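Task: sequence design from structure.
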């Protein structure tokens, strides 16, 4: 679906071919890219037609998380564990958009990353699931992750809602996410301030 956060209008687009869970992100050229396991594909959102780009290197599979960096023009995701469950590993993965070389970024963070999104100036935001429940919004220090120094993430605040997914940052720097309230209802929330408080925008029903 496509969502206009300003007006609250939601439009249903075509379903991607294959039906496999995916993470999606726009490239710097405005092309919608999906990450499906060990494969990147290009999606035509109006028709649902997907074009296979290729297989990630080094035998890496990623979860349904994908974001594009405006700094190094690479995609970032989270590595999936071994099958059949392909559980979260907390391991960040960098994907070269041109060669599909997938590289593990530092050591695993040791926590479940539910979603990633870059800010316009290149900061990496993450929704991180806590063992006690709920999600934290945190900024990932990629330099610290690569150098294996602490702290690797900088807490921004608790979201106060769970489960959450679909993290995004708009051109003004506002952080948005979705909260799945029920199996059929999702709520768009904005996360703002040093200790973000979910600000209910609208309820969106998916049929």
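Answer:
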């Amino acid at each position: 679906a496509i969502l206009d956060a300003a007006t609250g209008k939601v439009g249903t687009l075509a379903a991607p071919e294959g039906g496999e869970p995916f993470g999606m992100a726009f490239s710097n050229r405005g092309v919608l890219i999906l990450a499906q396991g060990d494969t990147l594909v290009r999606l035509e959102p109006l028709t649902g037609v997907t074009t296979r780009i290729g297989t990630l290197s080094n035998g890496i599979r990623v979860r349904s998380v994908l974001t594009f960096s405006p700094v190094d023009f690479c995609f970032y995701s989270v590595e999936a564990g071994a099958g059949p469950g392909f559980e979260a590993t907390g391991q960040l993965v960098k994907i070269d958009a041109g060669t599909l070389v997938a590289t593990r970024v530092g050591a695993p963070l040791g926590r479940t990353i539910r979603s990633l999104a870059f800010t316009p100036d290149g900061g990496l935001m993450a929704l991180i699931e806590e063992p006690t429940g709920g999600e934290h919004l945190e900024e990932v220090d990629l330099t610290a992750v690569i150098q294996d120094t602490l702290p690797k993430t900088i807490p921004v605040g608790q979201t106060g809602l769970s489960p959450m997914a679909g993290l995004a940052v708009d051109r003004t720097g506002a952080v948005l996410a979705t909260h799945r309230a029920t199996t059929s209802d999702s709520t768009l929330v904005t996360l703002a301030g040093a200790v973000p408080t979910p600000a209910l925008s609208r309820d969106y029903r998916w049929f």
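The chain has a mean pLDDT of 82.
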